[in-house]
Amino acid sequence: MEPKIKQVDSMAANRIHNGFYGQDIISVSQFDRARLDYILGVGNEMKILVERFGSADLLQGKILANLFYEPSTRTSSSFMAAMLRLGGQVIPINNVQYSSVTKGESLPDTVRTLESYADIIVIRHPEVGSAATAAHYASKPVINAGDGVGEHPTQALLDLYTIVEALGEVGGLKVAMVGDLKFGRTVHSLTKLLVNYPVEFTFVSPEILRMPKDVLDVVAASGHRYEEREDVHEIIGDVDVLYVTRVQKERFTDLAEYDMVKDRYVVDPELMSRAKERMIIMHPLPRVNEISYAVDNDPRAAYFRQMRNGMYIRMALLAAVLGKA
Fold first, then answer.
1. How far apart are CA 140 and CA 301, in angstroms?
2. What is the 8-class DSSP label of residue 291?
3. pLDDT tens digits for 219-270?
4. Alpha carbon 25 to its chain's center
5. Is the pLDDT assigned to residue 322 strictly greater than 90?
6. Which residues does the annotation mark as catalytic?
7. Domain with CATH 3.40.50.1370 in the chain
8. What mean pLDDT is predicted for residues 115-120?
9. Were both Cys, which of 20, 90, 130, 307 would link to 125 (CB 3.0–4.6 Å)?
10. CATH code 3.40.50.1370 for 153-307
11. What does pLDDT average to over the chain?
């Protein structure tokens, strides 16, 4: 269902609708090629803006409520930095234990409270579907910054931007996703986003961490080829994008299972010696042991560039949703 247009300001009728204005950003299913091209283009403009001028006043007078029910470094900080770079301000709620949530306040009531003070709400929550719930009750736009093991659409957008920036195109690439594919919301969203392009997928994981069936069904329904493997060494020489994920201890109810798979995949110089000269390694971070620090200086290591690109893409989304892109 198309997200509804929400209250942004009284001048809405006089603005050009860019496909994002006043909308919630909840799922990658909202994005077709035209919208992707648009937001990647605006993201590139934001990168140039920051590099040349540092900041702008596009969102002066606007306020972002940053509502995080789960720990976050990059997503939370980059949304705040994005708003500040554009001249807006932020209400940071990065630890709900110091909010009325500890008194039993419901998500709908928290959202209704924050929209009284802010123009847009960014939410991370441990439950799948929580962002959609927040959007249902909010009259202001809501952006999903991760809902449990569900989706992370803004991460998928910055991942796509990083691939284009590094390799110049998406079509024809072979993309391998490695590690925790069961609980990894970043790979769920990126996979669903990449079906907009002619790519080939390889999903590498232990049996207990395989990509969920609903994600594989999206890939199959779109006519894309994919294969599932357990050994990254068997595919490393063929891939253009190696997307590595952390095995998430916090998602396991049985820690014995976690111990069995936590160090299953490690990207090190020996593995990279088998990779193509022109390819990239990506990781949504944080990493634990899955990428050796010895790989950080490899020119194919794109994960810190990926992290930086998050601010540009989130600047683009904030400006587009608030009608200033």
1. 38
2. B
3. 999 999 899 999 999 999 999 999 999 876 565 666 666 666 667 789 999 9
4. 11
5. yes
6. 74-75, 103, 124, 152
7. 12-151+310-321, 153-307
8. 97
9. 130
10. yes
11. 90
